[in-house]
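Form 7-S
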Amino acid sequence: MNRPARPLIAIPARFSASCSALRYGAEVNARALIEAVWRGGGEPATIHPHAPGGSADPGLVADRLSRFDGILLPGGGDLSPSRYGVDPVHGSVHDIDAEQDGFDLAVARQALHAGLPLLAICRGVQVVNVALGGTLAEHQAGWRREHRNLVHQVDIQAGSALHGITGSAVVTASCYHHQRVDRMGAGLTVTAKAADGTSEAFELLGRHAWFIGVQWHPEDTALPDPVQQALFNALVQAARQRW
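Output:
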């Protein structure tokens, strides 16, 4: 089979209740995210989240992902606490969509099973954590724990894959989240932390597939900051190596 000039990177869409340019509801991805993948040499492809009733068919998801070279799980609304066994739900939890949750979890599981290179951002890393049996803290707030609209420094563990990608022990990260990883899923290890102790990046032990998960939004500053763009470059490079 002839390969395209650019590795195909699948990005599950996010449901949007309205879109002024289209006059209707839409399935979208952030332009900054798409452009960061493109600058990295990838062909970004938005895919439809299909999980009727909140449950995706694993075989269908595997078939759909088989044509792609890498996966990017982007940020978005909150994952339903029912997906990690929490009840009742904290009042701050918002924008839950059962179909989105079911599809994203299935994509994460299939990507890890098939060894597809996977970059998980914000909600995306939370999805991976839950897919691996972990839990989330439903709301992170209080003095020095507010991570909405926050740009701060993150310390990266020496010798980690993230350290090798960024070439730096400290990076400036743009955060927009109110939830975080609580109990870590099987095989995950923390490779970066904020000054307040929040775990900001994760890698997987004992797996040969390429995986990086970051709690911040590298696409926010990837255009002016080559350190953040390096995450997207590394995903595309790992995808190309599968050819």
